[in-house]
Amino acid sequence: MSWINLVEVHYQVARDHGAHEADRALSELRDLIAEELPGIARMREVAGLKAEHPIALADCFAIATSTAADATLVTGDPEITRRAESLPCEVLDARG
User: Fold this and answer.
1) What is the pTM of this model?
2) Is 65 within 8 Å of 2 (Cβ atoms)?
3) Are 80 and 59 in contact (CB under 8 A)?
4) Do residues 4 and 61 touch, judged by C-beta distance below 8 A?
5) Which helix (H) or strand (E) covers residue 12, if one does?
6) How far is CA 14 from the centre of its chain?
7) Which pLDDT tens digit goes with each residue over 6-65?
C-alpha cells in the first residue's frame, strides 16, 4: 500500500474519530500490509494514470502500487470500481 493512501486513511479516521483512533488504525493496518514510499518511477506511472483517467491522484497511487505488486486493489471507491475494466490492475469492489 502506498504511503499516500495510508495518509488518506489516517486523516479520514482522524476527521471522523479523532487523532488517537487514527494512530491506532494506522498501527493496526501497518501490521497487515507492506507499505511503500513511492519513488520517481512510480510517480511517473501515477502521472500517466492521472492523464489517462479522470480519477483522484491518490487513487492513481493505489492503482499503480497494486499494478506493480501484481495485486488486486480492494476498494469501495466508485470512482475506481466503475472504471475497473480499463485499469491495469484487478479491482475488487469491497462493497460486495
Assistant:
1) 0.89
2) yes
3) yes
4) yes
5) helix 3-17
6) 17
7) 999 999 999 999 999 999 999 999 999 999 999 999 999 999 999 999 999 999 999 999
DSSP string, 22-81: HHHHHHHHHTTS--B---HHHHHHHHHHHHHS-S-HHHHHHHHHHHHTT-PEEE--HHHH
Residues in the chain: 96
Residue 56 to residue 12: CA distance in whole angstroms: 15
In sign, the C-alpha dihedral spanning 5, 8, 13, 16 is: negative
State how beta strands 91-93 and 73-75 pair: parallel
Residue with grid cell 519513488, as numbered in its chain: 39
